[in-house]
Predict the structure.
Amino acid sequence: MRAWDIQQGDCLDLLRALPDNCIDAIVTDPPYGLGFMGKKWDALPPGKEWGAECLRVCKPGAHIVAFGGQRTIHRLICGLEDAGWEIRDLGAWQQWQGFPKSLSVGKAIDAHHGAEREVVGPNPNSRPNSAGEVRPVWSVRVDAPITAPATDDARKWEPYGTALKPCLEPWTLARKPLDGTVAENVLRWGTGALNIDGCRYGYGDPAWPGPQENDDTARAPSLVRDTPTGMGKGLEMGGMGSSLGRWPANVYACPKASRGEREAGCGHLKGKTGANAVGRKEGSKGMQNPRAGAGRTADVVFNLHPT
């Protein structure tokens, strides 16, 4: 008997081919509905129809973990709930690496008035590469130098923008309704519970973004460190009272996979240039923009997954 099987096709078609009550759990990263690169498949998050098929194939008590976008995960959650799932939690993958897609209000006002701003310095995110070329790194406008406000209105609104830095991706945890009590469901179906001890944070694990056991009181007040209701030493909260580690939480801190990790094992596939992989023109300013995606500057990309 095979331990695993990979099937490629339309998600709904493949789900419909499965029998009822055959799946123990679903972990999925469906389209976020953000219009990624203008692709139709990312026009909306999956809804009730998808949620209903997931519910049908899952055993009673089975859990689903589904990731979504900060602005659109509520649509995903509504689809699951409307399909009959019980929403159990909302969590976050903290990856710290996002960049703010923010409009400078001061610059927008000067542009509105038709006023030209004086250049007072280079792009602060510019740095020389290995060839000695100076290129901006984390700037939405890849050629944008520092400029001074040109009008009184712009000076008033210069500190303002329109977006925060995105540092997390949310996920929802939902459960198919139980067949009886938790005990009855677990014994009959083998589902309905979370393996807490198998998911604990090891002490010192940076995936836990909160206070560590060796933090001083300046960083972690005693209320947080020592009480049973805190994040640190309390046994019930998975603190130092358990030799297995901290209780698993609805937050996990981990950087995004590097390009090397994404490419590992894919060298036998047909590759594309970085520009072709992200749908940009070679040598264009868009190729220097982080919005273009990982791998945009690579000579060749084998892992062509769009996200």
User: Anything to note?
Assistant: The chain is about 20% helix and 15% strand. The mean pLDDT is 83.
